[in-house]
Amino acid sequence: MGVDKLIPCSVKLSQVIQKSGCDVLCVIDRQIPKELVEQFNDFRSYDKAFDTTVSCFKSSKLNMPVVYSPLPELTDYHDVRCYQNAAAKSLERAIKGGFKAPLLLVPESDKFAYASLCTVLGALSELYVPIQYREDVPDKSQRISNLSVMIPSPKAEEILKEALLLESGRFVARDIGVGDPERMAPPRIEEYVTKIFKNLKVNVISDLDTITKEYPLFAAVNRAANQIERHRGRIIFLEYKPPQPAKKTLMLVGKGVTYDTGGADIKAGGIMAGMCRDKCGAAAVAGFLQIVNEKKPADIHVIAALCLVRNSVGEDCYVSDEIITSRAGVRVRVGNTDAEGRMCMADALCRMKELAVSENLPDPHLFTIATLTGHAALAAGSGYSIVIDNSVAHCTGHARKLQEIGQLFGDPFEVSMLRQDDFDFNAGKVIGEDVVQCNNVGSSRTPRGHQVPAAFLIQATGLNKHGLDSPKPLKYTHLDIAASAGELPALPTAAPIIALTKAHLN
């Protein structure tokens, strides 16, 4: 689907404020038009909070309202997100003021090379309207009618075009991530995805016999939900083949748990609310494919899997102590049904491994992306994704590079390391089991609670046989976005699409 249909309103460049046709001017930095200098200085003379809070006033010289959303006093530890946040706040105030056609003055920055792009992205993020609201109340499907941006750069058109491309991917990710457990149940995500990606190769696996035979760990999670037709699981493979011979292959698996009750180990104490967001990993993968589909890289092959399942509780739900043999032939003992994310992704990841080896794909790099653990949120803090490389990816410096790129574009990462302890933690405890899926304590109370699942995904898929000394080393990276995807009541952020795009498609 084209970029223009995935942007929340019309967006255009403007060159002159007075002739922009806009009804409010949004200023987010102290680089202000000369017509506002005297008035700004006058406000500062009697209002000490003027440069720290959002304000709205009328400019007589420009003959139009002005929203001022100041940046903080920047320190060595601020990053470019301060521009994103200021732009979002300026649009939020303009919308509250009833304005429909804002003009955003995009500042330049000596400190942050991509401040202009991030500013536009920050503004666009504020304009997103959830898919159900758009469908149920069509006259509320847009927050404003159009957005104009003034970018003081000879690359203004290029910057705006790039922002709209990236936003189209975030739009798709937000649509899938924000949908409630019924609007974005697995079959309805299938409908959405097949409509968006008409020109990609799409393979939907929904047949229960096929799922049970080829994706047994996923099938276990799906067992209870499969009793309800509208909740039945799907594994959706998407593939982009480049026009030229591929130089590298990106293989992404996304956790798409459309609702997580915890299963038999049910989430109690009110912590089940918000678990419709447990599909944001698959949502991010779909959003990334939207960018791939529009960008059409000449020599990058991309294969993705959306693992869409509802972790329901019922008479047929899987339970702790079951032993299930994974696609890779690894005997897995279930330790906690609320650790369903690693279960639903493992067999699809194994399939990616098989493709990388059997088809001899060029320079393959496998990924899992998931809102996987509360431990990640505790370890990193809100707003930060965690990246964990296996030994092969680690030797290329991948995690640090992704972190550096994410820092430049306001999509930040913390880097974690895999240790032998993480693999030992998962080792089978009794005869007849190879690995234990999870302990029976929450990840936030488990030492190394976000590294251990990454080790499990390596063990349960046979990726541990593709290390540095193997005949076919394979790069694998696990991204835990539990802290960055966006929790209710906030809207989904679509992290880590921007960083992944900049790191792997440029």
Automatic annotation (TrEMBL):
GO terms for cellular component: cytoplasm. One of its GO terms (biological process) is proteolysis. It comes from the Eukaryota. Gene3D superfamilies: Zn peptidases. Keywords: Aminopeptidase, Hydrolase, Protease. Residues 336-343 form the Cytosol aminopeptidase domain. CDD domains: Peptidase_M17. InterPro entries: Leucine_aapep/pepB, Peptidase_M17_C. The keyword Nucleotide-binding does not apply. GO terms for molecular function: manganese ion binding; metalloaminopeptidase activity. Pfam families: Peptidase_M17. The keyword Hydrolase applies. Belongs to the peptidase M17 family. This is Putative aminopeptidase. It comes from Glossina morsitans morsitans (Savannah tsetse fly).
